[in-house]
Amino acid sequence: MSLLVVGSIAFDAVTSPFGSRDRMLGGSAVHFSLAASFFTDVRVAGPVGDDFGDEELAVLHERGVNTDDIEHVEGGQTFFWRGRYEYDLNTAHTEDTQLGVFGDFSPKLSSASTEAETVFLANIQPDLQREVRGLCTGAGLVGLDSMNLWIETARDSLVKTIGGVDLVFMNDAEIRQLTEEPNLVAAARKVLDMGPRAIVAKQGEYGAALVTADRFFALPAYPLETVRDPTGAGDSFAGGFLGHLASQGDGAGEDEGVLRRAMTYGSVLASYNVEDFGTERVRALTREEIDGRFEEFLDITAIEGVPMR
Ligand code: AMP
Description:
Bound molecules: adenosine monophosphate
CATH superfamily: Ribokinase
Order of helices and strands: EEEHEHEEEHEHEHHEHHEEEHHHH
Number of strands: 13
């Protein structure tokens, strides 16, 4: 099944305690696409400027991602984000955001994209996310991510957008901020009341939780000893999660077993993403490595005895 993602396609500058990069390929839609490409056919849509060239496109093409709906805006500048991490790698400190071509972006999608069965509205302005949702007439399952910036500057629009999707992926702090509810489970329930069927609360190095109307499931993060750059972990998580769901066919989003495996694939992809800067690690990843870490999760989470190896 085909999976469409619309979101930022960016250049990022990142400083972490383990090094820095002045300008590297990033963006919510890019991190998502690369992760999801291990599971299903992925199409990415969004605008880029004159500074975005063949070298950047090649990173997506190497993973088989369809870029026909990447729109080149003549004379424009690609979205740029600068962030810094201290020793608490769970918190990104935004130092600069330049919307560039996103400033007056109006999504145009090919019919192959509007027919995609699974859609991810990656982190962009919530009005734009809603516009894309409206165009995607073939979508049976729609996920969304957002961030503190939009909760602070476009809350009402974001709540309206959440009302039109099936799955919400957000950080625990953002879920609390959105609902003004300090307890995470209660906060996730308040987001469920806005309309979606499931909430994935990402908790950085502590893992992720899945909250639906009648169930709760949680996974720890993979116990990594080397984390160099957490940028894109959330999008890689969503890519692994929705990539797996899309590969399982119609109705997969209602099967608790598929959802739990999707949580695990999300955790696996996020764990690889943070091992190196930007897209460097996921670009070099193999399906065997993904399956290997999935197996390790079975061991890490076995509470009734140690499984055979
Ligand atoms: P995350 O998975 O949450 O770490 O997202 C990281 C990506 O989000 C980076 O590659 C940035 O380019 C992108 N990003 C940062 N701020 C924004 C924003 N305001 N809108 C869209 N994308 C953003």
